Each structure stands twice: as structure tokens, then as C-alpha cells.
Amino acid sequence: MHEMKKSNFSPFPIARIIRSRRKTIALQITEEGELWVRVPYRAGEADIRRVIAKHAAWIEKHMQAAQQRKALYPRHRFVEGELFYYLGQAYPLQFDTRPSPALSFSGSAFVLYFKAQPQAKALFEAWYREQAAAFFPKRVAFWAERAGLSGRYAAVKVSRARKRWGSCSTKGNLNFSWRLMMAPPEMIDYVIVHELAHLRHHNHSAAFWQEVAKQMPAYRLYHNRLKEEGYKFTL
To answer: What's the pTM value of the predicted model, to 2 decimals?
Structure first.
């Protein structure tokens, strides 16, 4: 797969042009409102321009929606009462005078040592990563057994990816963004099932989606919800 930036031939700014062995051109609007174009290796600028022109209304609509979401859910300021997601539920942030631990979770709130506020973002990420390191391997093992894929993957790793919820390497390493720990369990399970399916199909062919559907018949619901609500799961 080859990725590059290029936008001088499009009426919309293109953040990424991603070339791969795919057969068709696909457009994607990310959580940040960026336009990504996924194209076959041989596709030229004229092909990309034609597809963008055809779907201009769709692009504009989804870019505007992304900008509106960003305005409604600005980046965290790490102040008391602010809500943070964990496994799909929103919990308030409380300050405490006790220095240790600097950040903890009481079951009903996140508790931060008040003098650690300048380091709050790093503390939250470290906390989510710790939860992810314990959570993901167990869920992967559960779904792998159901799919007859136990022993087919090499490792389960926690990633810092901002643009991808999960990935499966050619070596069988399954990678999941720590940000998924903010999402509801059913959405996390969908990403796990999706990446496990790549152990059998290293593409997004019809056979791949059939494999996903076999393990999770309602996968489209969680796929769409993650696309629509994923912007909330960030610091």
C-alpha cells in the first residue's frame, strides 16, 4: 500500500491518496473531516477527479457534518465535571488532594490529583492503554475460538493509531487503538471480529465480509455506529 498527499487537482482538499491493489476508487471522510481517497495503483488524476466530481454533494455534506461534530465535541480541557468515556459510558472527572495514584477510576468517576492536571492527557492515555492491554487479548481469544482461529494470530498489540481502530499485519499481529476502550463493548467486538477475519482474507472482498457476518450477523450496525460516533472517543 502506498500513501501520499495531493490535492491540487481537486475542488476539495485531499488529505490522503492511498494506493493499493483494490479495483475501484473509494472516498472516505475521516472523523477530523479530512477527505481520503483510496485508489488502485493504476488510477490517474483524471480518474480521481471524475469520482470526486460525481460525489461532490456527498463529500460536502459529510465534511460539514464532521466539522459540526468537532464543534460540538471539542478537545478535552481536563477540568472537573468534564465527561470521559470508558466502555461506552461517560464518567465525570473529579479532583482529589491525594497525590497517589495521580489518576484512578472509582467505578463512577475518574479521580485526578489536582496538581497533576498539566499531565492529565498523558495520564489518561496511559490509563486507557493499561486497560486495553488487559482487555483486548481476552476478547481476541474469545472471538478467535468461536471463529476457529485460535493460534492463527501472532500477537495482540495496543497501538496509538489515530486514524485506524485496528489492523492485521501480514505476520498475523493484531493491533488495536487504545481509543477503543472508550467505545461500547459491542463496537470493540466488531473491530476484533473484523481484524480476525483478515487472518483468512487479507482484503475487503465479498468473502471477507461474509466471514465477518458469519461471526457477527449485525456487524453493519456496529460498523456504522463506530463511523458515526467514533469522533467522541478521543482525548
So the answer is: 0.77
Res 6: pLDDT: 44
Quick one: average pLDDT of 46-64? Answer: 93
Asked if pLDDT for residue 155 goes beyond 90, the answer is yes
Question: Between helices 206-215 and 185-197, what is the axis angle to 10°?
Answer: 140
Distance CA 181, CA 225 (A): 15
Give me the phi and psi of 204, to 5 degrees please.
Answer: -120, 45
Is the alpha carbon torsion for 152, 177, 214, 18 positive or negative?
A: negative
Rounded to an integer, what distance in angstroms lies between the CA atom of residue 204 and that of residue 208?
6
Residue 73 one-letter amino acid:
Y
Helix (H, G, I), strand (E, B) or coil at 142: helix
Helix axes 206-215, 219-229, angle to 10 degrees: 100
